[in-house]
Amino acid sequence: MLPSKYLHQPHPENCDCSVCWSRRELAKPAASQSTPCTECRPTRVFTVVTTMALVAGVWRSIHSTYRVERGFTCDKHMPALRPPKYWHVVYDSGRPTPFVPVREPFELES
What we know:
This protein starts with a helix and ends in a 41-residue tail after the last strand. Helix content is 17%, strand content 22%. The protein has a domain at 3-69. The relative contact order is 0.11. A two-stranded antiparallel sheet has the order 1-2. It has 110 residues and is of the alpha+beta class.
């Protein structure tokens, strides 16, 4: 089958190719984002004092004092210090063998 014809074919429902697998995995919600946690809390800001004044016939806030309640992230939801490793060694065959070009044909002796 020509590549141009193959690219436009629809995939079956139970297709296990890498494209369909990636779509299914990306559609799943992230476990760490959706898991409710009692330890984590977001940073919150509260207005403590607000000074209002009449500006051009409209009451507006001209000065405010805020109180910040610091957030907290538990160890489970804390992002890693380094990015995840995507590449790893699949098979380590040892030291690399140098390529030696053969200048003239030869036959193996028994």
